[in-house]
């Protein structure tokens, strides 16, 4: 077995140089916890054509395995909700469903928790258990409760934590429900993305406590929300950065099946867009679009002739927007009771008129009845999502 202490120190140095590793307690955790122990039985590395190459711990040269473990990248550990690297030997296709997030993202997030000695933390999404181990080292294993929805992923994480010397509270269940049996918590952190922060997390957090979670469901259009819970049971804060995590399993977007043209056969309106839908390829516009139409899904497609198309679908409202290139502009056809692009385009225009503020200027308040987002001083940039 290779001693990876030098690699852990080098990782800590890189994270400190990047500005995300800021405090001695977390640096000690990064230097102490061996990431390679939390990647068993193996990982999938991306190759061309949307395929994955399985790499296992036992079947790889030890030096190469260590190099992979301490690379600055997210490492996929499960595909399609069941497949692990030790179950295949050839290249495979599949959708990542569990991973070891890049260390820079993990450490940046846990530093943002502003923990203090003795704090009790609830983690939503155990994954490989690496971030759980970092928190156990920093706070003590009895102060960390971690919830994982996938029983197999939870079992592997628990085994890795035990092997690393941490007997923490690893719970198999729906993290969206939190874990009320050990509440209240000083901090709640989600290592998965959610469409909105569940109010049950707020209920399980002490007044003055912090909830940290990635909001959104579109890839490359999500934000890390940090809210503080008040004495009145509400929570308020802001988006502190861009963030990218896998979606919570129960909220994952299901790919639309069948012929997309059948979904757009009957349009109620057609016009030239005022703003190009390619704006949604940018992070902040994509985030704003989700605040405006939280149930809408963005779909990209290519015709047999190679023409690039874009769609917005809100299946529960039976509404759509279809975008087609038209010379230097775009034509949008809309159908259903919700004019999706009309409302999103209005928000994007207001955002541009306001000087295109950054995602970190978005504030939010959570109550038991609604989630409200806004940008200070801009009445046209305010969105309320009512729960009842």
Notes on the structure:
The chain is an alpha+beta fold and 388 residues long. It has two domains: 5-44 and 101-249, Rossmann fold (3-Layer(aba) Sandwich), CATH 3.40.50.150; 260-352, Double Stranded RNA Binding Domain (2-Layer Sandwich). 24% of the residues lie in helices and 31% in strands. It contains ten helices and 20 strands. Strands 8-7-6-9-10-11-12-18-19-20 form a ten-stranded mixed sheet, sandwiched between helices. The protein has a five-stranded antiparallel sheet with strand order 13-17-16-15-14, with no helix packed on it. β9, α7 and β10 (205-215) form a beta-alpha-beta unit. The longest helix has 14 residues, at 340-353. The mean pLDDT is 95.
CATH H level, superfamily name of the largest domain: Vaccinia Virus protein VP39
Largest sheet, in brief, is: 10 strands, mixed
How much is the average pLDDT? Answer: 95
Helix content: 10-25%
Instruction: Examine the coordinates and then state which fold CATH places here, giving the name of the CATH topology of the largest domain.
Output: Rossmann fold
**Strand order, biggest sheet?**
8-7-6-9-10-11-12-18-19-20
| pLDDT < 50 runs, ≥5 residues | none
Amino-to-carboxy terminus distance: 57 Å
Give the class from helix and strand content and strand pairing: alpha+beta
| Proper CATH architecture of the largest domain | 3-Layer(aba) Sandwich
Q: Tell me, what's the shape? A: globular
Strand content: 25-35%
Compute the number of structural domains.
Answer: 2
> Number of helical segments?
10
CATH class of the largest domain: Alpha Beta
Order of helices and strands: HHEEHEEEHEHEHEEHEEEHEHEEEEHEEE
The count of strands amounts to: 20
The gyration radius over C-alpha positions equals: 22 Å
């Amino acid at each position: 077995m290779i001693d990876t202490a030098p690699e852990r120190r080098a990782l800590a140095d890189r994270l400190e140089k990047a500005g995300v590793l800021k405090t001695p307690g977390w640096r000690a955790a990064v230097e102490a916890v061996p990431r390679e122990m939390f990647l068993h039985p193996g990982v999938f590395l991306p190759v061309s054509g949307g395929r994955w190459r399985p790499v296992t711990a036992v079947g790889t040269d030890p030096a190469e395995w260590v190099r992979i473990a301490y690379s600055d990248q997210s490492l996929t550990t499960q595909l399609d909700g069941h497949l692990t690297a030790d179950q295949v030997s050839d290249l495979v296709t599949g959708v990542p469903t569990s991973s070891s997030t890049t260390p820079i993202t993990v450490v940046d997030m846990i530093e943002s928790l502003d923990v203090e000695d003795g704090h009790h933390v609830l983690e939503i999404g155990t994954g490989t258990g690496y971030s759980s181990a970092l928190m156990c080292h920093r706070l003590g294993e009895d102060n960390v409760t971690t919830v994982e929805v996938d029983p197999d992923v939870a079992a592997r994480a628990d085994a890795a934590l035990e092997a690393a010397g941490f007997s923490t509270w690893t719970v198999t269940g729906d993290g969206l429900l939190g874990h009320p049996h050990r509440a209240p918590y000083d901090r709640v952190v989600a290592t998965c993305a959610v469409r909105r922060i569940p109010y049950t997390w707020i209920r399980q957090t002490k007044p003055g406590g912090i909830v940290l979670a990635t909001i959104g469901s579109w890839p490359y259009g999500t934000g890390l929300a940090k809210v503080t819970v008040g004495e009145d049971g509400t929570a308020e804060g802001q988006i502190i950065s861009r963030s990218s995590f896998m979606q919570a399993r129960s909220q994952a977007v299901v790919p639309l099946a069948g012929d997309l043209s059948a979904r757009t056969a009957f349009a109620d309106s057609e016009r030239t867009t005022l703003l190009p839908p390619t704006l949604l390829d940018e992070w902040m516009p994509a985030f704003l679009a989700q605040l405006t139409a939280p149930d809408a899904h963005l779909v990209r497609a290519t015709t047999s002739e190679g023409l690039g198309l874009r769609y917005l679908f809100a299946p529960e409202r039976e509404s759509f927007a279809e975008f087609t290139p038209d010379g230097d502009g775009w034509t949008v056809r809309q159908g259903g009771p919700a004019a999706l692009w009309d409302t999103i385009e209005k928000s994007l225009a207001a955002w541009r008129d306001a000087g295109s503020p950054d995602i970190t200027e978005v504030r939010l308040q959570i109550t038991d009845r609604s989630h409200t987002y806004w940008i200070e001083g801009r009445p046209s940039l305010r969105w309320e999502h009512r729960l009842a």
